[in-house]
Write the structure tokens for this entry.
Amino acid sequence: MPRRLSASLVATLLFAWLLAACTGTSGSTPTNPVAGSRITVVMVTHGQSFDPFWSLVQKGAQQAASDFNVALTYQSPSTTNPQAQAAMITQAAAKKPDAMVVSIPAPAVLAGPIRQVSSSGIPVVVVNVGDRSYQSVGALTFVGQADYLAGVQAAKAMAAAGVRHALCVIHEAGNTALTDRCAGFTRQLAASGGSVQTLSVNGAQLHQADVAIQQALKRNPDINGVLTVGILGFEAAGGALHSLNKLGTMKFGTFDVSRTNLTAVQNGQLLFVIDQQPFLEGYAAVQAAAFDVRYGQHPFQPIYTGPSFVTKANVAQIQKLYKNTGIALFQGGYPQ
């Protein structure tokens, strides 16, 4: 059985590598130290093409591919469609790549095809969503955020700010990561004596989502906090709160970084952003796959990239971090 590196050692090595890559002298790119033939990795995620979060995951994956001599193919359905993702995974595996990286937003649909891939001898790394199912499908490890725990931490922050009745907005149906965030949030706020109403909207239709959030807030005037579980939900809820003249007075938190929500934190309109570090997710997932193929080494435990809270106290540092790494954050804008 191959030896496994500890998650802490992998994280230490990874951050050392990223630091060297981002701060090389005279702006130069470090020499690629990985000799030998290129290995092939296919990455199949559920991320929708219009969702800015996934461009950051993909950019991190592409950087790791460049750093570790990997021929990377990145695929995803054009809409949230577990059946289409399952078909992509099966088709990719039939071409016998050296390793695969996948997300598991819908275990009932995706677990079977992924288990077939790992059983065939192709190493699999699970990224972004699937921390509770990666072991059952035979994957090497999980890279991403513990989403239920992230929801718990969001509730603690909201409760500390005085929130007792909250609205949790899910912008993508069928995504277990997003439902886990609301579930953890709901349970923890209830434990603090509060309550949560969960609202599902379609993030691909921001104006309709904005209107639905406005209606929910009007129907329940006791709501004094809103949590959105991603960038598209934030855009819709921000527009709704603006229309109701509550942006900046309603307690408001969200997941996943964009330029707009970092500015909202800086301006005091947003309590926090929970950053799961999508660039690092993509980078570490491809690195873990490449290291297993080349050296027979992979992390013993999941690599948790979040939850990492961005608040007014550290937002300037986070903005500098993203600027220094050259990641173009989603500009965004509230629905009109």
User: Anything to note?
Assistant: DSSP finds eleven helices and 14 strands in the chain. The domain at 147-276+312-324 is CATH 3.40.50.2300 (Rossmann fold). Residues 1-31, 332-336 have pLDDT under 50 and may be disordered. The radius of gyration is 20 Å.
